[in-house]
Amino acid sequence: MRVLGVDPGLTRCGVAVVDGDPGRSMHAEYIGVIATEPALPVQDRLATVYAGIAELVETYAIDVIAVERVFSQHNVHSAMGTAQSGAMALLIAGQRGISIAVHTPTEVKAAITGHGRADKAQVAAMVVRLLRLAEPPRPADAADAAAIALCQILRGSAMNRLQQLSKLRP
Q1: CA–CA distances in Å: residue 54 to residues 11, 38, 58, 79, 143
Q2: What whole-number percentage of the chain has pLDDT above 70?
Q3: Looking at 68, 107, 135, 144, which residue is catalytic?
Q4: Domain encompassing residue 101
Q5: Which of 58, 63, 119, 141 is catalytic?
Q6: 44 flagged as catalytic
Q7: Which CATH number characterizes residue 162's domain?
Q8: Which of 15, 117, 12 has its CA nearest to residue 59?
Q9: pLDDT of res. 72
Q10: Catalytic annotation, pick one of 7, 37, 107, 144
Q11: Average pLDDT over residues 49-74
């Protein structure tokens, strides 16, 4: 399975393409960020995020786009930008018929570290371990995107198998 993990953000949108299946080695095809200038109009920033995600989808033949769920933030302006950025990934998935998954930050931390309250350093350390990287991806948005993709592989594959099994039962 090839997953595009997206850590939405308007200034830095973390993105990671990870290949793998549970129980088998997983590896990163790409880890990075799509950056936009805060001084630009929001529509230009969203167009940049859209184009960056679309390019990754086309380049890497993505099977699933996994996006971190936007949770309540105290800064409404920041939450809006994060939600709008995440919507670009969902729009691309809809246009291309790609499956989507949305994971909460707690769900991602639990899937990667075994504990839903893990800190960023613990998550980054497990990303390094699971993907056999020399060092944690930087900036943190890139590491978070890789964790989201890993979460989808680890949790999403299990959910897909359960759904397939439930269809076999009378």
Answers
A1: 17, 21, 6, 22, 20
A2: 89
A3: 68
A4: 2-168
A5: 141
A6: no
A7: 3.30.420.10
A8: 15
A9: 60
A10: 7
A11: 91
